[in-house]
Amino acid sequence: MREFGLGAAVILFVSSIIGSGVYKKVAPMSLELQSPSLVLLAWLLAGIITLLGVLTTAEISGVITDSGGPYAYFRRIYGKMFAFYYGWTSFSVIQSASIASISYVFAQSVNTLVDLPRLGGDWETFSLLGGLFTPFSNIGVKLVAVALIAVLATINYRGAKEGGWVSKVITVLVVASLFLIVILGLAFSGGNLSNVQGVASTYPPASFSAGTGFIGTMFVAMLSAFWAYEGWLNLGFIGDEVKNPQRTIPLALTIGIFIIISIYLLVNFTYLYIIPIDEMIAIAQKENTIAAVEVIGRFLGQSGVLFISLLIIITTIGCTNATILTAARVYYAMAKDGLFTGRANYIHPKFNTPSTSLVMQAIWSSTLVFSGSFDQLTDMLIFASFIFYGSIAFGVFVLRRKEPNVHRPYRVILYPVVPAIFVLFLCLFGSNDLL
Length: 435
Hints:
This protein is mostly helical. It has a single domain, classed as Amino acid/polyamine transporter I (Up-down Bundle). Helices cover 71% and strands 0% of the residues. The chain has helices spanning 6-17, 21-24, 26-33, 36-63, 70-77, 80-113, 122-125, 139-157, 160-188, 193-197, 213-229, 245-274, 277-284, 291-336, 355-369, 374-402, 417-431. α6 (80-113) packs across α8 and α16 (374-402) packs antiparallel against α17. The relative contact order is 0.22.
């Protein structure tokens, strides 16, 4: 059943992207670059590159509208084997780690309101696999994150319409609240434009003169920004459930990404306008701190901390929900082709959802919550996803050669320049020694 029109598709797209990154990633980016203007440049460059990817993918999504998104694209462009590799990487790293990391920030936000328990002592440092797996550190935060995954998986188990309704309500609240932060922050915070124009006391960072220098450091900072843009492919996962998908999906992708870029630049400018870069760097060096909480608390006090903490909680619920809703369709599509384990192709007779796929995804995502920190999870999934982003963009060239006469309701602008730049950037980014 096709549940989502253009408005709902744009909302689902936006809710799939706006999650933890807009609140948290400005701090590690400041630590890397030590310059507010360079931090904003990193956000802009990451947005432009993402826009190129969206414009490129929009052409493919207008031609291939089957459920499963990139899995369906790869199956038709490169064959089942490549699609198989994508699907299992998505399950093991990309989408599951995304769900785990966003829910982790949700739990960290809860922790700012209520001190969640910790085991303390040697439990905090206990690790497996050479320190990669730290199951007992920050245990209260991790258990709350797992609880969120379980609740949202249950909601989506009971129907796509219910999951879509949750995303719609949350997205409207989040976007309105972010614009409120910008207005209040620029008008009443007591911030100063000199904070944005200045640099850290330790500028330039040592990394500028070592290894790959400025470019390499900028790439590392952009890795954080790309996490905030992660999720832009998710709308294609539910192609079978979108009304008039050939027109709706490309249009929703394009409208949505312009909304996201505008919001990110405005909000991060506001953060850096309020707090000097040296203080932002100090925030990055503390555990369980969220930059947005520190910024808003600066001029609104405890009421501001409560507001922003609740907003992050709402936002991360929405983003986790959207990712759970969309990503499970990948494993359902794979199972229909005999490329995924178990009964992931099972459709619940009452709720008409890929119920088994949702349960499997929830279990693995919960496991990843215990594996490490938020930043470890996000860096891992971004690097893995870039391989497939480049493959999708290159697929435009392949599909135009293989199927030159197929109807394309949308053609990527400035072809072949736009997809070529996107592919070349990802190749350069992936080959950088620092990544």
